[in-house]
Design brief:
This protein is of the alpha+beta class. It contains 2 helices and 4 strands. The longest helix is centred in the middle third of the chain and has 10 residues. The protein is elongated.
Length: about 80
């Protein structure tokens, strides 16, 4: 994965604190190895599919997943962005 990066984004669940669910103890649902490889390669950005409260995702990562340049999937609670 370090030498041959995967093109799929990692999947994160940031939870919905407003509904009493702060998220799982580890937010990476899929892509732990892709995340580790990106960190090892010192990638400037990591593509991620974020589920949960997107305002909370902004608080965590300082990335607005609803910016015009990003693709929003059909489910309003899931957005694809680069973190």
């Amino acid at each position: 994965m370090v030498l041959n990066p995967a093109s799929e984004p990692i999947q994160l669940d940031v939870g919905c604190p407003g509904l009493g669910f702060g998220g799982p103890s580890w937010p990476v649902l899929d892509g732990n190895h892709r995340l580790a490889a990106a960190i090892y390669r010192e990638d400037e950005f990591i593509s991620a599919q974020v589920s949960g409260d997107l305002d909370h995702a902004f608080e965590l990562f300082q990335v607005d997943c609803e910016e015009p340049g990003f693709k929003t999937l059909s489910d309003d609670s899931i957005s694809e962005c680069t973190i």
